[in-house]
TrEMBL record:
One of its GO terms (biological process) is translation. Keywords: Ribonucleoprotein, Ribosomal protein. This is Ribosomal protein. Gene3D superfamilies: Ribosomal protein L22/L17. It comes from Lithospermum erythrorhizon. The lineage of its organism: Eukaryota, Viridiplantae, Streptophyta, Embryophyta, Tracheophyta. InterPro entries: Ribosomal_uL22 (IPR001063), Ribosomal_uL22_bac/org-type (IPR047867), Ribosomal_uL22_sf (IPR036394). SUPFAM superfamilies: Ribosomal protein L22 (SSF54843).
C-alpha cells in the first residue's frame, strides 16, 4: 500500500489578546499568497495585528523546512483563519 505524502504544515497561535475583527482584516490580505509576498505585506501594513501573524507565518515556514525539508520560496498560504477567543472579565473597584 502506498502512503500519501503529507504536504501541508500549520502553526497555531493561541492566547493572543486582540480583537478577532482586527486580526481578520490582516488575514484576509494574505490568504492565498506566497510566503515571501506575505512577509512583505505584513512588514508594510500599519496594523498592530501584523506582528503576531508575522510570527505565526514565520513559524509555519520553519516547521515546513524542518519537518519536510521544503524550500521556503515554494510555500503558499493556503488556509488562514481567525476565531474568537475568551474574553477577559473586567474588574469593578468598590470600597467594600
Amino acid at each position: 500500500m502506498l502512503k500519501k505524502k503529507k504536504t501541508e504544515v500549520y502553526a497555531l497561535g493561541q492566547h493572543i489578546s486582540m480583537s478577532a475583527d482586527k486580526a481578520r482584516r490582516v488575514i484576509d490580505q494574505i490568504r492565498g499568497r506566497s510566503y515571501e509576498e506575505t512577509l512583505m505585506i505584513l512588514e508594510l501594513m500599519p496594523y498592530r495585528a501584523c506582528y503576531p501573524i508575522f510570527k505565526l507565518v514565520y513559524s509555519a515556514a520553519a516547521n515546513a523546512s524542518y519537518n519536510m525539508g521544503s524550500n521556503e520560496a515554494n510555500l503558499v498560504i493556503s488556509q488562514a483563519e481567525v476565531n474568537k477567543g475568551s474574553t477577559v472579565k473586567k474588574l469593578k473597584p468598590r470600597l467594600y
